[in-house]
Amino acid sequence: MGRYSEYTLDELLDIEADWWDREDETNPKWIKEGLSLFLALSKLDKKNSGYIEVRAYLSILHGEYLKIQDRSYERAIKVFHQIIMLEPDNARANYRLGFLYFYEEEWTKSLDSFYQAAHSNPNLTRKKLTAEQMVKAHYYILKNSKIITQASLDQIADMPYKQLEQNEELKLLLDEIRNGIEPNDEKKPYQMILNGVEYSNISEEEYEKHSDIDLPMFIFNQISLNDTEVSYLGRSVSIPIKNAAILEYLMKNPSGVSKQDIISRLSQQSKDPEAALRQIISRLRRKLAKLNPEIEFIKTIDGGYLWSGGGEYRMFKHFRCVGTELQLD
Q1: 74 in a domain, yes or no?
Q2: High-pLDDT (> 70) share of the chain, %
Q3: Structural domain of 261
Q4: What is the pTM of this model?
Q5: Does the residue 247 lie in any domain?
Q6: CATH number (domain holding residue 307)
């Protein structure tokens, strides 16, 4: 972090211009360079809040890289805590943190992070949850609560009921606990989405049957947070998580999506967000062409993009990945 400590503000501004010219948010070296650069700029120009905003943006990218590329959830958690130290009202950082703790099975911490995300009131749009994210934050508040409750029920199951039930007050409490709360059974742990709009929960057996890559249809299969595979007529390719998020959003909106809609969800500090989006779409098209070069899976329409998979398609997620689409904000 001390690599820029000897530079003047004017020299750093020249370096900043060159750094933006090389913009590539998929490159961890570019991200780390920017973190060092904007830390130095913020020290020399403490009144410029824009430097803090870019640092927060880069920290989110760095956290996503650690989580997705390195599978290093613990390091990513530290990065998101740093963002919250910079911006305590950043609801989206707490939202990210909630998912990280959920994957780590830290249910109480996940619950707290999602609660903070849902109840923060930031003044900047880039820090706020979208309407969809707000719903998902509340969903995971309930999901974590259910898991925590089930753990309590499991502990209560080991208690000496007969001895406890001699106390009438405890007997009433035990009856309420046992009868008033449904166990956390996961008999249908997968979500299937048909043609982007018809949602249903399915069992492991149904998942294996309906996600067979040899079926005559396009299949989007988010096997885990870090592993998304798409297939068509027996051919399959792996899609990087960031590109998969865009693809998923297009497939869930089969009537088309505007560029500005996607860009607003990205909430980037990018100097040229449209160019960054075009780059992602180009990479996606190259990946999908490996399935069938004759099909234009993603069409360019006036002001945006349209999913055009050529018939029926299915999408699959495990319940732990539900609600994680478009993790780019």
Answers
A1: no
A2: 78
A3: 190-321
A4: 0.59
A5: yes
A6: 1.10.10.10
